[in-house]
Amino acid sequence: xxxxxxxxxxxxxxxxxxxxxxxxxxxxxxxxxxxxxxxxxxxxxxxxxxxxxxxxxxxxxxxxxxxxxxxxxxxxxxxxxxxxxxxxxxxxxxxxxxxxxxxxxxxxxxxxxxxxxxxxxxxxxxxxxxxxxxxxxxxxxxxxxxxxxxxxxxxxxxxxxxxxxxxxxxxxxxxxxxxxxxxxxxxxxxxxxxxxxxxxxxxxxxxxxxxxxxxxxxxxxxxxxxxxxxxxxxxxxxxxxxxxxxxxxxxxxxxxxxxxxxxxxxxxxxxxxxxxxxxxxxxxxxxxxxxxxxxxxxxxxxxxxxxxxxxxxxxxxxxxxxxxxxxxxxxxxxxxxxxxxxxxxxxxxxxxxxxxxxxxxxxxxxxxxxxxxxxxxxxxxxxxxxxxxxxxxxxxxxxxxxxxxxxxxxxxxxxxxxxxxxxxxxxxxxxxxxxxxxxxxxxxxxxxxxxxxxxxxxxxxxxxxxxxxxxxxxxxxxxxxxxxxxxxxxxxxxxxxxxxxxxxxxxxxxxxxxxxxxxxxxxxxxxxxxxxxxxxxxxxxxxxxxxxxxxxxxxxxxxxxxxxxxxxxxxxxxxxxxxxxxxxxxxxxxxxxxxxxxxxxxxxxxxxxxxxxxxxxxxxxxxxxxxxxxxxxxxxxxxxxxxxxxxxxxxxxxxxxxxxxxxxxxxxxxxxxxxxxxxxxxxxxx
Length: 686
What we know:
The chain is α+β, with helices and mostly antiparallel strands. Helices cover 46% and strands 20% of the residues. Strands 13, 14, 15, 16, 17, 18, 19, 20 and 21 form a nine-stranded mixed sheet that branches. The chain has a six-stranded mixed sheet with strand order 6-7-8-3-9-10. Strands 2-1-4-5 form a four-stranded antiparallel sheet, with helices on one face.
């Protein structure tokens, strides 16, 4: 037999507090050979379990040397100790330490899962090992369905799965009856006789009596080391052949070190399924926050889409409006040729710098005039006695426009005023006329204009209403439209021949060389440039749209902040639940570390659980959002006739992404705590 394990002058001291310490082992020196079945005996507190933890690589805080083969454990890094436990040592515990929510097969293959072995190979190897311990018919059962003896056989199979050189059994029969004890001891004896070193920590004289060697420890010192002259090797060749076969496989196919993310997710799924009610409730709690977030995004985008669609339906997106404004936002009547030329040059330079093939010229830039009644009194006197009361009817105009290009196709009734003397009204004029058709009615205008250098009243007689034009958000107000050239002609009568000074310019980006989308994109680019010019703005529709959009953004942002608070609460909930999960599964973590799991592997398992919680929460959140959107849509349609809700396809990824990020972030601390747990302390936890 070859010398397998050599212990030289090993001392172990536990620090009790800042000033006190306790020495558990004193200058332990002993060696063991492969094929031995050794019993370490002694009273409680004698140091035997401490020695086993050092041999097993669970505890590396000692002085002296523990040499296994060509490795000195005192010189190994944490990562090398993990690999040592995975490849060289197998643990069999008194309380079995099986993971209750995993099947017998999954418990045995756990070490292979950590080594990233393929599913087919794991099942084949585990099935063969379970046959050796007589449990081939129990592989699909859970540990709670087995007897104590069967559980210990599963623990032995788990210890053997990676074909270790050393088996450490801590009170392997302490929880078993006499008959079952002898069955387990027989298996351990056959394992030793197959060529492995089996070390048992025990209080039992019966266990010690079947050992090939008994080492007694007292007060941290070896006081006796005796060979058993009556020990006889078993004639069974089953384990011997299996060990020989596994050694050959181990040389040909060394185990991988890393637990893959896919394997971690599969293992985490098993863990989560074991506590599915708790995890579903946690996911639903997060889903409420995710659902609220998606609902708020749908409201925000729905309102935006509604405003944009409404504005677009009443104006041409290929036409840009430029108006000069005073500090209070009202138009000024002094956009002279020099100013518009400067603006046109600036626009063209901006378009060129940004790669747009378009130029603003006099051919596509036309003047306009408009003013609100706040600064200009505009009244219309109707020639007919509409109310049959003997008086002419007066209508105070809310806003005065020369006909803008973007209303050229939006006539509700009548025709556009292409001839002199033709005017148009907004639909609000119907409220004034009642049942009388206004088309063709004659109107006398009195327009009081007060601008720099010109303060007078312009009278336009016998104007004919030639059309009713829909003016979007302004449709409910009495607004009048007049042909620009006609109005300029009337204006000159009162201004000593001076030309009408435009208050507005319209730039048409539609072109035969451009598609509709390209024209709209260029118009958007020009609007972006105009927004950088101090004192200038777009059309009143655009201003109103921006105002409503700003309001919608403010409301949407507020709602999203409320959703974020809900998500913060959800994140705290995940952190608490995951932290509690680590505390509940401390012993499981100790078992994983005893079979070679690295800190990174433990962290990966718990992070994968956080990922799965986030994924499940995101899916539930989308379902919650879908239900809420449907309910709110039905309510709004029935109450107000419109439902400004818009679900974008990428909200699916936002929901899943936010949920997963929150869950993984919340699980970082619990995962780190789990990875840092001391394996010895973890295995002691009840």
